[in-house]
Design goal:
single chain, 6 helices, about 0% strand, binds zinc ion
């Protein structure tokens, strides 16, 4: 159920984590939403393909972190990638 909510919000445009979260929060409350959205996007195949096409993973992550507007979230995201 939660995954379906995250999927339907994210797939409206394959938005970055912050925008996806904003869309979800307009309609739902999901505990731990931030990390769930991050995990979903990390595993989103179209986003992974775009990531590959863009080339350097680090540059992509930086752009993503900047869009989300926080330097602390960059390390969070980086850690997610390292674990995978
Ligand atoms: Zn996506």
């Amino acid at each position: 159920m939660q995954v379906e909510v995250i999927r339907s919000a994210h797939e409206r445009g394959h938005f970055a984590c912050r925008k996806t979260r904003e869309l979800i929060e307009q309609e739902y409350f999901i505990p731990g939403l931030q990390s769930k959205v991050e995990r979903f996007i990390t595993n989103c195949v179209p986003c992974i393909m775009v990531n590959r096409k863009a080339g350097k993973k680090e540059g992509y992550l930086q752009a993503l972190a900047e869009r989300r507007g926080s330097s602390s979230s960059r390390s969070t995201l980086y850690r997610v990638y390292r674990v995978k």
